[in-house]
Design brief:
The protein is of the alpha+beta class. The protein folds into 2 domains: 133 residues, no CATH class; 71 residues, no CATH class. It contains 10 helices and 6 strands. The strands form 2 sheets. It has a 4-stranded antiparallel sheet, sandwiched between helices. The protein has a two-stranded antiparallel sheet with strand order 5-6. β5 and β6 form a beta hairpin. α7 crosses α10. It starts with 5 loop residues before the first helix and ends with a helix. Bound molecules: cobalamin (B12). The site of cobalamin (B12) has 22 residues, from α5, β4 and α10. The site of cobalamin has 22 residues, from α5, β4 and α10.
Length: 232
């Protein structure tokens, strides 16, 4: 099959309710699974959500309404699976594991994102309000510009409000305390986090215009608590 173009992929992703989140040429130590013939894909294209832009497409889907578990993961698998079939690509998913596919590592290869104290990568446009829904892996190279380099907004951030806002101090210098976070979010005192989303993430001044609100914010907090309960 002839190599697919970036423009074609971006248009197909947009029509499916996804954003192309950049691409990279994997090296052997990037943890990208091999193709069925044992070779490394030439290009990996990441797909995801940027702010609230794609949420309405998922919210209107059958998966969002059928009441079964893991609606967003199931929607991602269907929609990205269809793209993979159409473009004769492989498909990888962030919920596949453990062991987990190292999506944050891949993201740092594909676009100018940086680690933040919250554990969520910070993006120069979307701030902390973005996520990865899957990746397409191509045997043939897809022509994609190298990501523009941009400094981490956390480096010049005054006061690091994300580190001081969490009511239970779950964002710590030595990392994110998921257990303390989940205990608080599940408690009566965690109502604001459950209803409006993570307070530490909301305190970040970057990408405020793209903050998740309403059902999108609540959906992710419910999914976070459910994931924690499964791992306890
Ligand atoms: C397990 C998991 C969780 C667990 C445990 C997370 C934890 N921090 O302990 C739980 C259920 C608690 C969780 C919660 C959430 N998660 Co989570 N999670 C994952 C998952 C499935 C695997 C992560 C993993 O272990 N990967 C394995 C390692 C080897 O992969 P890696 O890419 O190399 O990751 C490393 C680097 O990124 C590096 N790193 C990350 N930050 C920093 C910071 C510094 C300073 C340094 C040096 C390194 C570093 O450390 C990571 C671990 O080694 C990923 C999806 C995925 N497949 O990656 C999502 C993922 C990381 N989660 C995500 C999100 C959004 C969340 C939540 C905010 C969900 C919500 N409520 O909205 C919360 C809060 C997370 C937080 N504050 O850390 C997003 C992050 C998107 C982004 N913009 O970066 C991901 C990528 C899922 C997605 N679909 O996009 N999560």
């Amino acid at each position: 099959m002839a190599a697919v173009s970036r423009a074609t992929l971006e248009a197909a992703a947009r029509a499916a309710g996804l954003a192309c989140r950049g691409a990279f040429m994997p090296a052997p130590d990037d943890g990208v699974p091999c193709l069925p013939d044992g070779s490394l894909p030439a290009t990996v294209v990441l797909l995801g959500f940027t702010g609230s832009a794609q949420w309405p497409v998922f919210a209107a889907s059958a998966e969002a309404r059928d009441g079964a578990a893991h609606p967003l993961d199931r929607w991602s698998r269907r929609v990205i699976g269809e793209l993979a079939e159409r473009f004769a690509a492989g498909a990888e998913f962030p919920d596949e594991g453990p062991p987990w596919r190292p999506f944050q590592r891949w993201a740092r290869r594909a676009e100018p994102v940086h680690p933040s104290p919250t554990g969520v990568l910070i993006h120069p446009q979307w701030g902390l309000w973005h996520a990865y829904r899957g990746a397409l892996t191509f045997r043939e190279p897809v022509d994609w510009p190298r990501p523009a380099s941009a400094p981490s907004a956390c480096v010049s951030c005054a006061g690091h409000p994300c580190e001081s806002t969490c009511p239970v101090g779950a964002i710590r210098p030595d990392g994110y305390d998921a257990a303390a976070c989940a205990a608080h979010v599940a408690s009566p005192a965690g109502l604001d986090c459950r209803e409006g989303g993570c307070l530490a993430r909301r305190a970040c001044p970057e990408g405020q215009a793209h903050r998740y609100v309403g059902e999108q914010a609540q959906f992710h907090m419910r999914a976070f608590l459910a994931a924690r309960q499964r791992s306890d």
